[in-house]
Amino acid sequence: MTGTGSSVRVVEDAEAVAREGAEAFVACVGGRRPENPCRVALSGGKTPEPMYRLLASEPTRSRIDWISFECFFTDERPVPPEEAQSNYGLFHRTLLEPLGIMAPRTYRIRGEASDLDLAARRYEALIRNRTSVFPPGVPSFDLVFLGLGPDGHTASLFPGIPVPDDRLVIAVWVEKLQQKRVTMTLPLLNAASRIVFLVSGKEKAKAVRRTLAPERGEESTPASSVSPRRGEVIWVLDREAASELPAAVAGTGGPERGRR
Ligand code: 6PG
User: Percent of the chain beyond pLDDT 70?
Assistant: First the structure.
């Protein structure tokens, strides 16, 4: 699955995964200016929370020129921002609020919209406007964070749910969740310069192995299709999430030793 410019980095635990994510954030903004911001797409779920808390606290907080960031979301649940399930809501509570006036420009998906198909189209138009990239071009995010579900889903691209590749953002019905989700699609994700998967926990080990080291004849996962044309993919895994990976794959990026 891992194509050119892809690597796997195994670290000790979830906190170390969060530290790696925060370092990727810091590296992205290096040398940027408000007129040429680093555009980041943030994944949903619970995994990003410790990274957000690290970014909002010293010393990391002061290492970042927040005015040179623009934050977007890879996907959103069908809920308003104040609900616990909201991906934007987590970001707002754990990073934007603590940063106060330093908070970066952030563009959320309107999960509370009654028409999520329209919300998806509006989000795609917003991304195109902010990046000044219009059809047939595809905007390229500088940095995309993705998570991985136990079933191998990423963003809200779930197994068995076909997603058209002529859209950048779409609303999809997810039968197993009995809810509609708004998600970035593979053409947009795969246009990114750098994609960082942050994955921790034993419950993800099988999905990690199925994605990074599929056995012959095994069905691929949606995350397997994340392979940027010109960018790089970095899988940051804690030891539990990497526990079913063959050593040859787990060692491709080398465990981070001693990074503080
Ligand atoms: C979402 C996601 C989803 C998430 C994975 C991992 O909105 O749920 O974007 O792809 O990243 O399900 O979720 P956890 O981090 O909670 O394990």
Answer: 95
